[in-house]
Amino acid sequence: MQHRVVVTGWGVVSAIGHTATSYWSNLVRGVSGIAEATIIPTDQLAQKIVAEVKDFSPSKHFDDRQRRVLDRVSQFAVVAAREAIAHAGLSFEGSLSERSATIVGTGVGGQSTQDESYKRLYRENAKRLPAVTIPKLMVNAPASQVSMLCGLRGPCFTIASACASGTHAIGLAFHLVRSGGATCAVAGGADACITFGSIKGWEAMCVMAPDACRPFSRDRKGLVLGEGAAIVVLENMEHARQRSATILGEIVGFGMSSDAHYLTRPDEGGMVRAIEGALADGQLAPVDVQYVNAHGTGTKANDEAETTALKRAFGPHATTLAISSNKSMVGHALGAAGGLELVATLMTVKEGIVPPTISYLGPDPVCDLDYVPNIARSLQVRAALSNSFAFGGLNAVLAVRRV
Fold first, then answer.
1. What is the pLDDT at residue 264?
2. CATH number at residue 228
3. How many CB atoms lie within 10 A of CB 25?
4. How far is 198 from 201, CA to CA, in rounded Å?
5. Which of 18, 61, 168, 295 is catalytic?
């Protein structure tokens, strides 16, 4: 038996809001979270602009003991998970705890801890590191901390597929609940990769924008690194209705593919297979979809490939789609990106408002679809897709619809 899978809660920590409500409000107003970094020194950086989570105070959320064992990435994940669970009105006690999964995607794990460790070892010649170093930086720490601090005793694991990690995590949680392997799942993505070492690595790839992230726009110059977390609560429909939960939207399909082509150069063929897979899994025809939340990084190669893939997957209907990229406001939050974008997609379906693609200067000759430039748009959306296309050619697409 397959169960319908609904979303009953969401939580967000982002560059434009520390809650889902503030995140959505700023998305539709076109507020940018991109600015010069303040949490790391920038004097030795060529790339100084990022989309950081500003004014985040761990002491508001964790006691002294918890803070000592939580890297910034785990702090984000737990705060978003707590908000999502409270929003869903769930208490994970008794047998429900054992029938609820925790799946959190992250691209790189505890980068703040790793950076600090290297500084102590190689600059300060430290003889030893804190005993909690490995528990803080290990890539599964966010999922494990969410499980422990929220009382979830079912399956718990981490997905690490670069920029598609959050979408893969939610998609696999969807499969688990749909199949009956779990009644509920707490799933999403988190990353906190704005560290000196990370930025220097990204600088070396020559894909960073010096001023703003302008997805699909003419004169776009690349991506801007972001950070944050977004978590959703999934339940089978029967369980949600039995407890009279507020249903925020339904996940109906999930498509995955690998380009098997190139580590950093996207291939539209892989994108098309993932999009078509999500549509087929959700029993949706192309004409059933009104909105696509694009991967939309702002790099020349990604935006051109994604535009071509949408044309191939949707045919003539592609020209009628509303398409937007949240990365123009929250940057590219790597493993958190898919979670942030899935929440925005669900909110678009629920509220009937499409967030804009900001900093848009005008059409690019190759990127010639409707990217909802600069100003949000009222639109009744019955079904939508959320795209994630990662380094390594790892593609993941979720399909959602209004209940």
1. 87
2. 3.40.47.10
3. 13
4. 5
5. 295
